[in-house]
Amino acid sequence: MKKMLSILLILSLAFAVFGGQPILAETGEGSGTSKIGGEGAIVVSVTLADDGSIEAIEILENNETPGISDAAIEAIPEAIVAEQSLMVDAVAGATYTGDAIILAVRDALEKMGADVSRFEVEVDTEVEQAEDVLLTADVVVIGAGGAGLTAAVQAHMNGASVLVLEKMPKVGGNTILSGGALNAVDDRSETAIAMEDSVEWHYEQTLAGGDFKGIPALVHILVSRAWDAVEWMKELGMEFVEGEIFTVTGGLWPRAHKPLEPVGTGFFKTYQAYIDSHDGIDVMLNTKATDLIMEDGRVVGVLAEGETGNAVTAMADKGVVMATGGFANSVELRQAFNIQWADLGPSIPSTNHPGATGDGIKMLMKVGADMIQMGFIQLLPIGDPETGSLSGNIEFGVDSRIFVNKEGNRFVNEGGRRDEMTEALFEQTDNYLWMIMDADKYPTGEEKNNFNESINSLIAEGRAFKGETLEELAEQIDVPYDNLKAALDTYNEHCESQEPDEFGRTIFGTPIDTAPFFAAPRVPTVHHTMGGVHINESAQVLDENLQCIPGLFAAGEVTGGIHGANRLGGNALADLLVFGRIAGESAAAGR
Ligand code: ADP
């Protein structure tokens, strides 16, 4: 049934693109479409010159999130035309978007009857090595994700010149891929009062939710400065959805603020605007830090490899901030450190970007930094079955969805801790769940989820399902109707009574009883590495004797001891903002 649906959809898409007319020209224009890696469809138009060469490529349709895929969208068509080759992924940096564009161009060429083999030529990727460079700034930041750019902007505001080194061809790291949920409590606000929330309650839930392994002083800083950090971002121009907070998966309480821009792009638009409008703060892309430079026990700079393999030496007069994120995408490191899960081998996917490989951990270990709680690794129960990414996650928050297994039964408190939900999922058939929602959150189907996707687009791609009745939905996703109905009936009774249910769920929204009904499949996926380098309250890195390593600071996922054994959903963005600012301040002060 599912297969038939996707074939039908592909046929209707092809018809839309080509208007039903076969294209058999060797020159002229044609369109192609592709979908890859769980991302949206890309439709391109290709123009061939009289001699059969590719003259132009235009992206006609692109459901990718602005800010995330911009680099590939510019670079790949240009590279194909320049090289007259489809084998340009290595030239322009392989990404899902890049691969999808190449497939779409191939599709167009095939539909036009062009000789595709002519464009399957190896491209000379040998580039002349650039000169080695020596640069100096007051503060050098490693990593241009959320923590790194927060630290960079704060250090610059405090009077430092700043150089950021980023190994990928773009900024953003995992932060830009996150759903954007940011936990922060303003004790004085009406929403916090209405939700019976407080900084104190956030503190208690964060500590307890991490099995009391978080360092209390750091947890206290996290929760008490989170709201200040939101206001700071607002002053810098970032917009949030006003007057609306929600409970993000594993967040345990409605205190997550949602950026106005999709996923994490609002943060980077804001940092970029600051960087573009100020002198003395720069980001070098494609520059991979490999080592910290020590002089008389102090960190004084960073050794890095430039885009062409040339040596980049960045000397820091005041300090270096390590903000390289976690290691959820290094199977080797997660297998080496994991103590919580049976196996974190390659069969378990990750939500993370390809650069989340723990480079910072390795650099820090070389200089004798104290690494703590490395075995605590967070999995989410809501990964895309094909890619493990968060894309295709149809929920808006905890209160409006349930999970059922392949038998159509609920099996866990869907408002609970991330580790407990994932452990329960590992007990279910094929480690597979269906997220079930109704029309309350999708009155038209065009509403965008936290990952900038509408349910209609996901249904068209065969990644979500819709039933005009619950029976029809059960049939589509092949779960026993009677079980699904019983699961919803019981759940809906609790929405009315607001009494805790048999799984201990206490967060209930409106009943899930309004047709049409929706479902999307999800699986376990590695999300966040809670362990990392030990820092003090000024974000200074500590050595194994718990002494500060002068000149070295750290913030974000590379640090450990803040979230304990399990991180609350929505606390990562608060962490990188709060400790990113502290690291920036401390580094600018040259501690
Ligand atoms: P955080 O949430 O802590 O900011 P992110 O994953 O969002 O973490 O960002 C970390 C950034 O650090 C990513 O952009 C990643 O590509 C970058 N990075 C990782 N290792 C290196 C390295 N060796 N050199 C430069 N940048 C790095």
What does this structure look like?
This protein is of the alpha+beta class. The chain has 3 domains: 12-119, Sufe protein. Chain: A (Alpha-Beta Complex); 133-329 and 356-374 and 533-589, FAD/NAD(P)-binding domain; 379-526, Succinate dehydrogenase/fumarate reductase flavoprotein, catalytic domain (Flavocytochrome C3, Chain A, domain 1), CATH 3.90.700.10. Helix content is 31%, strand content 21%. The protein has helices spanning 2-18, 70-83, 89-92, 96-111, 146-157, 190-194, 199-209, 216-235, 265-276, 331-337, 359-366, 418-426, 455-460, 470-477, 481-497, 571-589; strands at residues 28-34, 42-48, 54-62, 133-142, 162-165, 182-183, 240-246, 256-259, 281-284, 288-295, 298-305, 311-322, 371-372, 377-383, 402-404, 433-437, 465-467, 517-529, 532-533, 540-542, 548-554. Strand 20 (540-542) and strand 21 form a beta hairpin. The structure holds adenosine-5'-diphosphate.
